[in-house]
From TrEMBL:
ATP binds at residue 131. It comes from Gossypium barbadense (Sea Island cotton). PANTHER family: CYSTEINE-RICH RECEPTOR-LIKE PROTEIN KINASE 3. Coiled coil: none annotated. Transmembrane segments: none annotated. This is Protein kinase domain-containing protein. GO terms for molecular function: ATP binding; protein serine/threonine kinase activity.
Amino acid sequence: MYSSSCFHKPFLGYLLSSLQAASIFFRNLRSIIYCLLLCNLKNQTCLIYFLFLCVNIETMNWRRLCCCIYQEKEDGNKENNKSRDNLWEIYTLKEILHATNNFHNDNKIGEGGFGSVYWGRTSKGVEIAVKRLKAMSAKAEMEFAVEVEILGRVRHKNLLGLRGFYASREERLIVYDYMPNYSLITHLHGQLAADCLLDWPRRMSIAIGAAEGLGYLHHEANPHIIHRDIKASNVLLDANFQAKVADFGFAKLIPDGVTHMTTRVKGTLGYLAPEYAMWGKVSESCDVYSFGILLLEIISAKKPLEKLPGGVKRDIVQWITPYVQKGAFDRIVDPRLKGKFDRAELKSAVMVALKCTDSNPENRPSILEVVEWLKGSVGRRRKEMTNIEHMLEEDGDKETDTDLEGFRMAKSEVRRKWAR
């Protein structure tokens, strides 16, 4: 399970002292060993963070355990710090400070509930994003541990990549791949909204990408993972506007055979499934509901919750339902697109979103079904448009000067028909 080089004598000493501290928390060491076996931990980092969750954060054992790991870094054995099962490394504070210009305010690219995000460039010229926790509270510590643990487990083209982390007595830092096109919320409601860089094909591509990332978490990751905080600000966009699902601080690992759990409610109002918001019942279906809200937000550029006069709040599903009942799908789409969208794809995407946001979790589709529907709709329409364009081009080769004007009128009529 572990290679002999993973554990050095000093590490074993701190490991035992941490286990002893943890055994006080669990009242006996047997519980610790049993929990370790249940977790099926496969690498040193997983073990470290499991111990972190067990050990009282007020003790020095966790800090001593961290120091044991980072001492090797200072001694120059950098290769030993890289996980054998992951493509990330433990950074030194000096490296991160140099990359971010000492966390200069000009480098700040985002602000979250538990800290700030900074842009940086490493000595190797690699652009990075660094999340810096602003408070060493138990809640923030837990999120740090959960996010590093989960990002260390997953690798997918539609999930934000972890480059590494740093942890010490004073600092908790997570290093990610840098996303030059920021987050989806920046383009829908933020400083880039007026530029309308998200045309219709790009929006559908982002929706499908985010759904595929969720599909990996729900069905391929082992154990399965529920994100619990799917929203526009947690979908980042790379240089090619490919979606990357991010922020796993609220994520839940779901053991095999478990369909749902009851837990404290986490997440963002407007995106929460009713059964989760009211009773704390969390399942993969909760992520599907949140994705349905996100899909409607991508289509319409409306916020999930809208404040009406008199202080009344209306959610996006309530806003969209009357238009769907009337068949007025054109009234739903973002007006900044200026009519440049595929109406059949629009109708299909809206109906998929409404299936996802069904109030009964048993009626919601799986995220894999959502991916299949969205891909099928987009792929089918693009194939149809390619076929009709090809047919029109063939007809155009046969046209003469005498009927050129009449053909152009007919061609425009056919295009209008397919655009409906």
